[in-house]
Amino acid sequence: MPTDTLQSSDSATTANGAHDAPTLKGSEIFVRALEEEGVDRVFGHPGGAVIKIYDAMERIQPSYDHVLVRHEQGGTHAAEGYAKATGRVGTVLVTSGPGATNTVTGIADAYLDSVPIVVFTGQVPTHLIGNDSFQETDTTGVTRSITKHNFLVRDVNELASTVRQAYHIARTGRPGPVVVDIPKDVQMSEAPFLYPEEPDLDGYSVPGAAAPSQVDRAAQMIEEAEKPLLYSGGGTINADAPEALTRLARKANIPVTTTLHGLGAFPETDDLALGWLGMHGFYHTNMAVQNADLIIACGARFDDRVTGDVEAWAPNAEIIHIDIDPSCISKNVYADCALIGDAQEVLQQLLPKVEPKDTTDWLTQIDEWREECPPYEYEASENDDIAPESVVEQLYEKTQGDAVMVTDVGQHQMWVCQYYKFGQTRSHISSGGLGTMGFGLPAAMGAAFGMREGRDLDVVCVSGDGGFVMNAQELSVAARHGLPLKIAVLNNNYLGMVRQWQSLFHEERFSHTDLRPTNPDFVKLAEAHHCVGLRATSPDEVGDVIDQAWTVDDRPVLMEFQVPKEEMVFPMVPAGAASDDMLTEMFNKEKMAEK
Q: Tens digit of pLDDT for each residue in 115-128?
């Protein structure tokens, strides 16, 4: 659990003036509390344990919109996509039992990726809790290990204050999911309604600025370094710190690498941008990590997909770690200098203390590694097949980086990270820590709703055939709301990433990864859900399909690109290997030639 400390009982002090407040039923208090919180969209699905809330919404007609999702997991991923695209808290409302348990994957995904969402679940009446009642689940027990905090509301007088606390906890510090379980009798009981101006959370504090002595030490380490490297993660974006990070990199002439969630924190078209690092990061980037003498990590947690063999990772580098969560400091990689605080505040502290540096020799060395194994290069298929990398490149050419790119999980996810050049913050949305197949479509739907709240960017979802069908039902929701989603399904008729591992490490025993016998016709699937379906089967059709998709602006368009099953993602650091022990495409060709 993130270590924003929390000491709170189930009770909350009623604010002064409650005797003047209107008396409402709990269901009405809930609806009004979301209005007071400034919620503008709720992703939900009704059921018996929340029917009173849905009835209250129909009677009150609140200022926020409700989106009826087709599956509760889709609702949580939609809330994640909304939160990641907008920086606001996503909201979910579901019933008890299966409604609550269906949200667990999305909650866990949000927890591992530090996404602020609040999930409200219905519960059986308090006097029936523990009796194995119909559609009863110990929701707080089930979600305790995958939430930043959770609540079971037993008294209607605590409902409004609990809602206030939930949103505050979700958005502050290291963001994360919060669950609020509301029994049916609490929804039916009456109490005065007064929404607290401030949350009553004794002991809950959020780090701000870092210790000045540590900032001075970090500045000295940067001054002395000859081969510095900035390593930016999703926490940089959560803190709205990309501008400060960019200023620091350019002022000190320090190259920048980003994690999967850090993409967009630094312009990928900048001369100092190295692209992303880790298991499928670029060759020159991983070589830079392994040869750096200083790594400045900002809002990153040194996860295993970045580090591989921790003992062999960045062996020559001292580490400066900027993070708001103290529990992440020295958890995986020892931090020589810890700057605990909000990333934007810490970078603002650091900027005036850092002087311009001459890193010409270091940047020249990185360029030499780049020439050894050039990024953004691949060979066209000899069989007139569509190269999946080319689809991503043409999507970039179409959007010029002015789009929110949402991916599912698998090979296509890696190709997007490699071949799409992200130029602005909150333009890349993906499932990282949990690696959830089925994430892409509902998250893209949530992001598209978010684009209606101020930002005007196309939302593009790139998915594989395996992951797409896991939550394909949300197509009809996107169509119902006229969302102009552009969906690219890279269809190789296999579970591609698993097949790649089977090919490289399991002597090509392709156990249960062939989807050809049961894969749907994706064009018909789109049309059945009231969307437009298009298909490309050869390279010369790719551009035409993309152009045609962009002429549709009143519903989603699904573009199926049929790609060969043999395609693999390179470079690749095998699990547990050192970051400079990479498999490259050349290795793959030599390996295939031996067979």
A: 999 999 999 999 99
